[in-house]
Amino acid sequence: MAESPHRIVRAWLESPRSGVIELDRDWTGRSEPRFTLGKQCPAPGALLPAPPLPAGLTFGYYLDAPAAEIVFLLPLEHGCDIDPARDTVFLAGDFNGWQEAVGRSEWQLAPAEVEGERVLRWRGDAARFLTGGLRFKFVTGEHQWLVPPTDAPNLVHDGQGNVNRFVDPARTGWHLWRFTVAEELSLADAWVAGFAATPAETVPLVPGPYFYELRTDLPLGAIVRGDETLFRLFAPRAKAVTLFIAPSADAFDLATPQAFALEKKASPGQAAVWEIALDRNLHGWCYWYTVDGARGGPGPSGFDSTFKVLDPYALAAIGRDGPGIVLDRAWVGQGDRGFKTPAWHDLVMAEAHVRDLAANAPVAAAPAERLGFTGLRKWVESDAFYLHHLGVNCVELQPVHEFDNVTTEEYHWGYMTNNFFAPESSYALEPAKASGVHELQQLVAAFHRRGMAVVLDVVFNHVGVPAHLMFIDRLYYFEQDAAGQLTNWSGCGNDLRARSAMARRLIIDSCTHFIEAYGVDGFRFDLAELLGVEVLRDIEAALKRVKSDVILIAEPWSFRGHIAGALRDTGWASWNDGYRDFLRDYVRGNGAPERMEYFLRGSPWYFAKWPAQTINYTESHDDRTWIDVITENEGGNGFGPTPRDRRRTHLMAALLFMSLGVPMLAAGQDFLRSKHGVNNTYLRGDLNALDYRRMYRYHGTHAYFADWIAFRRGKLGRLLRQGSRPSEGFFRFAFAPGSPALAVLLNADLSQGPERLLFAVNPTPREVTIPVGPDVVGPDPSAWDQLADHERFYFSNRHGVAMPVEPDLYLPPLGCSLWVNHG
Q1: Which pLDDT does position 119 carry in this prediction?
Q2: Residues 28, 154 contacting (CB under 8 angstroms)
Q3: Which of 266, 516, 650, 718 minimizes the number of CB atoms within 10 Å of its CB?
């Protein structure tokens, strides 16, 4: 049977004057192929088989035919966080047992340089790899699997959530052809590539990696400068940008705006921007853009000259659709500067939602105030403020950036962001007047007066509806696969291409703005895995130049992978999902005590190189509440918890506050907040609003949490607030035979003074004895003073006999105890 003609599957520009055309298989013709780039550029010149680097970058391998070898490449640029001086990397796959390759020198990649680019390289006999379809992946010596680029054309999914690449014997490097053109190809035009013999059959010619490095350092947004207002937008492929302004949010004004065409201006060494200066002070005016561009390209172009684009740098917005509001930064002012952010290891955090805290708060507030910043501020300023009496010193607020709720009344968690500079308009009393700016400033200042740091939950991994950045430049701002379709590792329909230079800058500028204008103390990054370690490093460096003690927390996973281990060498902390999942099982008598030991030690080394790198928690906004997860009730409904549910909750609290790291609660967890077993409540304000009456119903549990927090933050808790790893002899563990029960002695080597703490826990329904040994008891057992058990703290009046410290330490079923020896 005759071989079918070759097809062009992709084409991209390496620079404005050169590019690569990819065929469906290696070219086997006697003469080189003839291509066309359309009517405007019918004959690209200097056509040559692409050298090794494009194939290695695109497919992860290429064939060195003269040597009969295959070469696997891992580039050390373009978003790679591997440091050859620190990391070892191995080639793994179907051909060597995957994990079994780690540590074997014959599979280790070596530093090299290919066409002037730094890479890690492995080369070997080609024959064994060209049998067809062999999968491969790169993995570090610490078993961190490196995620392949989302636009790699040789990706394969294994059906278990893993994404690998495969070796295609028909594509070994001779399927890629490099071309050059005499004049630069404009990004604003839609270019195509095809065979000269069949010019009607083409594929889009899209910008390659150089495109995503385009950037400008010029200020962006609406900038009021005295009697002049400058509007500036970065839109690298736009053909035209039009500004619309209106004096107010009045319906008539918005329907009859003034329109101005922006001019594309270039600066030396930087990408061009679109801008216009109007000779008037437009503070308080409404504005939006329309952006037009070429319609060609893989997938939808995103350009729509009729769509009203909300400026990504707008400092306030009337709603998810816009318009933005021009604000003079002098009017915006600065956030609170008088608060000292606590050291990370001193933090005790509570995650909370603005409306959940304010909705039922026992404070005088109008219904409209309870919907947002003002109602919560009044609650924070009240003498009865719940989180103040609980004792936490840091609140992590769920997203307050403008998000995509449709109406003011609609409840929303906020994880679908529409603008990264504007405070959420539905949380403001007068959004058309940008009142949310000052209301949020006042809220942050109120928390600070309470001695609480404010960490904002921020969502930079995807955007909500409408996706305004999509209409500025879909290709530049969003991750796409080889076919030009949006990737969806966020599970929300799109993934922001944080690796693009101006997307990275947008994130940094947004966080900087909230530090400077609102006085926030830090950020928790939602699905941070999608941003990548290199981007997170850049964000850390930039924000620490603004605020040296900024709190940076990553949710280190996505549907694509997990990067907590890779963040160990950074200044980021991570939510510890392993801790969360294990404690849910452990308090029900499951799990190895050695695993609990690991978490009590602060998840050392693999997860956290220093204790405060692990954010220890057992409940967050996601999924069911703690009590709904562990309840004995049918249907996972912990609204009416059983006595053992409460006892297990007390064990969890004791373990949480005895673990090195940063403890975090979900608001209401201390009074057994329940969502009636409902798993996903992101739109359920009725279920999420805190019912403060449960504090009276379960006052003993609330008080137990508050007492543990007071202990943790007090003088005796200093042994748990470790700024760095303690000495090897600091901990001493003992285990009950055949049981998950354990005991731990802290400061066992007296390296941190004479005081020692002894903590023991029994998560089983049977009483146990734990052999701690006579040397722990010491010559005077009475020197051990009991501080707490599974029901209460003993600060002054014990109301009974203290549980003794003995060589065989007794614990009752579902029991725990804490003792101190002052030495």
Answers
A1: 94
A2: no
A3: 266
Q: Which residue has the tokens 């944080």?
A: 498
pLDDT of residue 522: 98
Strands 238-246 and 286-293: antiparallel
Q: Which helix (H) or strand (E) holds 275?
A: strand 270-278
In sequence order, what are the residues at sequence separation of 6 or more whose Cβ sits closer than 8 angstroms to the Cβ of residue 336? 441, 444, 445, 448, 519
At 798, list the tokens.
């014990």
Strand residues in 763-814 grouped as ranges (E): 768-771, 784-789, 808-811
Average pLDDT over the chain reads 94
Measured distance CA(345)–CA(722) in Å, rounded: 6
- 646 to each of 628, 629, 638, 643, how far by Cα in Å? 12, 12, 10, 5
H or E element at residue 191:
strand 191-195
The Cα 760–Cα 764 span in angstroms is 13
Can you give the three-state secondary structure of 24-76, one letter per residue? CCCCCCCCCCCEECCCCCCCCEEEEECCHHHHHHHHCEEEEHHHCEEEEEEEC
Q: 546: which 2 tokens?
A: 């603004």
Nearest to 726, CA basis, from 709, 748, 708: 748
Token pair listed for 400: 């307050």
pLDDT tens column, 74-85: 998 766 778 888
pLDDT recorded at residue 1: 42
Contact 624, 636 (CB under 8 A): yes
DSSP 8-state assignment for residue 528: G
Query: Residue 269: is it exposed, middle or buried by C-beta count within 10 angstroms (0-12/13-18/19+)?
Result: exposed
586 burial class (0-12, 13-18, 19+ CB within 10 angstroms)?
Answer: buried
What is the rounded distance in angstroms from the CA atom of residue 552 to the CA atom of residue 522? 6
Q: Write down the H helix ranges in 662-805.
A: 685-688, 694-697, 699-713, 774-777
Name, in order, each residue with C-beta under 8 angstroms of 605's C-beta and a sequence gap of 6 or more. Answer: 568
Maximum Cα interatomic distance, the chain, rounded to a whole number of Å: 96
Low-confidence residues of the chain: pLDDT under 50: 1, 298
Q: What is the DSSP string of 98-111?
A: GGGGTT-GGGB-EE
For residue 187, give the nearest of 208, 207, 202 by alpha carbon: 207
Type of residue numbered 13: L
Burial of 132 (0-12, 13-18, 19+ CB in 10 A): exposed
Contacts of 545 (CB under 8 A, 6+ apart): none
Convert the pLDDT of each residue in 119-158 to its tens digit.
999 999 999 998 878 999 999 998 889 989 888 999 998 8
Residue 533: enclosing H or E segment and its boundaries? Answer: helix 533-546
What's the pLDDT score for residue 296?
A: 58
DSSP per-residue letters across 218-263: S--EEEEETTEEEEEE--TTEEEEEEEEESSS-HHHHHS-EEEE-E
Task: Please tell me whether residue 173 adopts helix, strand or coil conformation.
Answer: coil
Of 308, 305, 289, the closest CA to residue 234 belongs to 289
- In terms of residues, how long is the chain? 823
Task: List the end-to-end C-alpha distance of the chain, in Å, as a whole number.
Answer: 89
User: Tokens 């021009």 label which residue?
Assistant: 326
Bond preceding residue 323 cis, omega within 30 of 0 = yes
Q: Are strands 394-397 and 349-352 parallel, antiparallel or unpaired?
A: parallel
Question: What was the pLDDT predicted at 798?
Answer: 53
- The pLDDT, as a whole number, for residue 367 is 97
Cα separation of 505 and 740, whole Å?
Answer: 49
Structure confidence at residue 40 (pLDDT): 62
